[in-house]
Amino acid sequence: MILLVSFLVVAMLAAAIAASVFRDLLSAVIAAALVSLIASILFYLLQAPDVAMAEAAIGAALTAAIFIIAIRRTKRHEE
Amino acid sequence: MRRGLSILLLIVVALGISLSLGEIPFGRPKTKVGRYYIDEGMKETGAVNIVTSVVVNYRGFDTLGEVTVLFIAAIGLGAVLTGGGEKKRKAEPASLVLYTGCRLLFPLILIFGAYVFVHGHLTPGGGFQGGAIIASGFLLIYLGCRERRISPVASSLAESLGGLVFVVIGLLGIVLGGYFLSNFLPKGTPNALVSAGVIPIIYIAVGFKVGSELASIIDNLIEES
After folding, report:
1. Hey, how many other C-beta atoms are within 10 angstroms of the C-beta on B131?
2. For B94, what's the count of Cα atoms within 13 Å in the CB-facing half-sphere?
3. What is the nearest CA distance from A39 to chain B, expressed in angstroms?
4. Mean pLDDT of A10-22
């Protein structure tokens, strides 16, 4: 259990750093969605399933979709 | 000069936060109200899910405010985005795998979302979660079956009806129970689907409202892009 949680936290930190470092904005959005997905798993493991469901649906799916739509209208690469 | 000033400011803010939060004992219950909800929530509201009993019953007025904020956000987005007039976008069709998969999965996602908000007082989840799941199902439709659109009339009808039911139940609470959003229906037996008075009705209304609002946000954005 503690191993799983520590692995998830390390992966979440890595995804968060990747989201801020990536020049390709599409990759950055995917990494940010990964942060939300791992956060929802952690919420579930912390016995907050209500929050986990909202985080998975809104944080990982809908927010990423809105960002991807915005990227399609603007530029994909950060200069 | 500027850097030194910002470091000084940072130190002052960090000191303030650590001094004010350092006094609070960590990991122990600090207020009595949380313990009260856990002990008495099921008896007083009839909802087995304590989160739901807090969200819809004890803090129902806050939930109405949240729903209103989401409503205003959706209205504002629609007002900003639907200015460019009608333009028919030539979308290339999705691949067969995506098309078939989304046609297969969409009804299942809808049923799961409806299950989540209908059973909000029994199992984890509720109106917001179920609505978000339904909206993600509509997102899948927009990705896979691109020629389909939700009808704006049905969407705004579901949205307005959801909000109306919430407010009317709150006002009925004043008439029948003495205060806004009071639980005037019988509580029933715990763990039954029809129990907890007005909570399931409010959560079904919130589920429809949140689902149609988030789906219309997605619809507006995709239509414009």
Report:
1. 30
2. 17
3. 16
4. 92
**Residue A30 placed within a domain:** yes
* Contact check, Cβ <8 Å, B126/A50: yes
Q: Mean pLDDT lowest for which of A39-48, B124-133, B216-225?
A: B216-225
Interface predicted TM-score of the whole assembly (ipTM), two decimals: 0.84
DSSP state, B218? Answer: H
Per the structure, the complete domain to which residue A26 belongs is given by 2-73
- The whole-chain average pLDDT of chain A stands at 89
Model pTM? 0.81
Contacts of B139 in chain A (CB under 8 A): 61-62, 65
- CA of B150 vs chain A CAs: smallest distance (Å): 17
Contact A57 B125 (CB under 8 A): no
Backbone φ, ψ for residue B193 (5° rounding): -65, -45
* Domain annotation covers residue A78: no
pLDDT of B103 higher than 60: yes
Taking the C-alpha atoms of residue A25 and residue B128, their distance in angstroms, rounded to an integer, is 29
**Cα B157 to Cα A37, A62, B10, distances in angstroms:** 32, 22, 51
Task: Tell which A residues from 6 to 65 touch B, by Cβ distance under 8 Å.
Answer: 49-50, 52-54, 57-58, 61-62, 65
Residue with tokens 């946000």: B217
Q: Measured in Å, how far apart are chain A's first and last C-alpha atoms? A: 42
**According to the model, what pLDDT value does residue B57 have?**
83
Distance from CA of residue B49 to its chain's centroid?
Answer: 16
The total domain count for chain A is 1
Domain ranges of chain B: 2-224
Sorted by sequence, the CB contacts under 8 Å of residue B175 that are 6+ apart come out as none
pLDDT of residue A40: 93
Q: Is residue A6 part of a domain?
A: yes
A26 domain residue, yes or no = yes
